[in-house]
Amino acid sequence: DQQVKQNSPSLSVQEGRISILNCDYTNSMFDYFLWYKKYPAEGPTFLISISSIKDKNEDGRFTVFLNKSAKHLSLHIVPSQPGDSAVYFCAASVGRDDKIIFGKGTRLHILP
Amino acid sequence: GAVVSQHPSWVICKSGTSVKIECRSLDFQATTMFWYRQFPKQSLMLMATSNEGSKATYEQGVEKDKFLINHASLTLSTLTVTSAHPEDSSFYICSARLRSSGLYDNEQFFGPGTRLTVL
């Protein structure tokens, strides 16, 4: 049973436009959410996180929105840049010390 | 800061042999290290959690006798794939969590991964 779901395996966005990556979760105990970016043959790198007490967290071009009632979060990247082309993993944990559960990832292609 | 290294980055071995993969936190102490496995076009699957000086906690379905994990110090964890078979071929990634720092709550820093190919 997949607790963190990223239903779009891939997404193509024009350079300069907004990229929106979506993620759903099923475990209502999750209270900490993270987004990671991963290039081929490399380990994931941390992008941004949000705790369940917030509904929005912003860091530069990256904003994460959390809708607890819908068990949904999204990552917005604006404006999208060529270097943003990568696989993005949504992840969640119960408490800050617990293991992190990853979604399957969404491959983002930024088109010139 | 917060760099995690893995060695080797790529290994090819014959079926039946054992392979050891090292994971090091280079500039911080990691109380907890994690080992993940990633199949092509799949999610990162957590295999086990290791805390320094104690036995690793394995996820359901992961054979602890096949995937031996040792976390001997706050900067080093090793994963040994024993009697490797072709189905063990995968991309293995470790991560390390900073020792109680409010700045990086639950943030895991990942190694670059190790590509294992078993012939």
Give me a quick take on this structure.
The complex is a heterodimer of chains A (112) and B (119). With 112 residues, chain A is mainly beta. Chain A has strands spanning 4-5, 10-14, 19-25, 32-38, 45-51, 56-59, 62-67, 72-77, 86-93, 101-102, 106-111.
Explain what the structure shows.
The complex is a heterodimer of chains A (112) and B (119). Chain A is mainly β. Chain A is 0% helix and 54% strand. Chain A has strands at residues 4-5, 10-14, 19-25, 32-38, 45-51, 56-59, 62-67, 72-77, 86-93, 101-102, 106-111. In chain A, the strands form two sheets. In chain A, strands 2, 4, 5, 9, 10 and 11 form a six-stranded mixed beta sheet that branches. A five-stranded antiparallel beta sheet of chain A has the order 1-3-8-7-6, with no helix packed on it. In chain A, a hairpin with a 7-residue loop joins β9 (86-93) and β10 (101-102). Chain A is globular. The model of chain A has no long low-confidence stretch (mean pLDDT 93). Chain B has 119 residues and is mostly beta strands. Chain B has no helices and eleven strands. In chain B, strands 2, 4, 5, 6, 9, 10 and 11 form a seven-stranded mixed beta sheet that branches. In chain B, a hairpin with a 5-residue loop joins β5 (44-51) and β6. The radius of gyration of chain B is 14 Å and the shape is globular. The relative contact order of chain B is 0.32. The model of chain B has no long low-confidence stretch (mean pLDDT 88).
